[in-house]
């Protein structure tokens, strides 16, 4: 019985994996690109190929976000993320 349940669970997990990988931009999930420049780290969040926000993590100081301004080709600095995606901190030291 345990072997049957294990096999059934394995088949279900494989079928869900084949349907679409997590983070697949074609599924509407965010595509995150990480760039390093000078002492900053930039996380670009794109959904369906459209830039939604950039998280800037400086070497010294608090992280902040850049979001596209409405009707302009510029970015606006905000302190909190505007995206509603899971962002859990597993651990921090």
The end-to-end distance, rounded to whole angstroms, is 44 Å
Structural class: alpha+beta
> Mean pLDDT, as a whole number?
75
* Helix segment tally: 1
Oligomer: single chain
The shape, in one word, is extended
Strand percent estimate = 25-35%
Q: Order of strands across the widest beta sheet?
A: 1-2-3-4-5
Report on the biggest sheet.
5 strands, antiparallel
Q: Which residues sit in consecutive blocks of at least 5 with pLDDT less than 50?
A: 14-25
Please describe what this structure looks like.
With 93 residues, the chain is of the alpha+beta class. It is built from one helix and five strands. It has one helix at 2-19, and strands at 31-37, 40-47, 50-57, 64-68, 75-78. Strands 1-2-3-4-5 form a five-stranded antiparallel β-sheet, with no helix packed on it. Mean pLDDT is 75; it is low at 14-25.
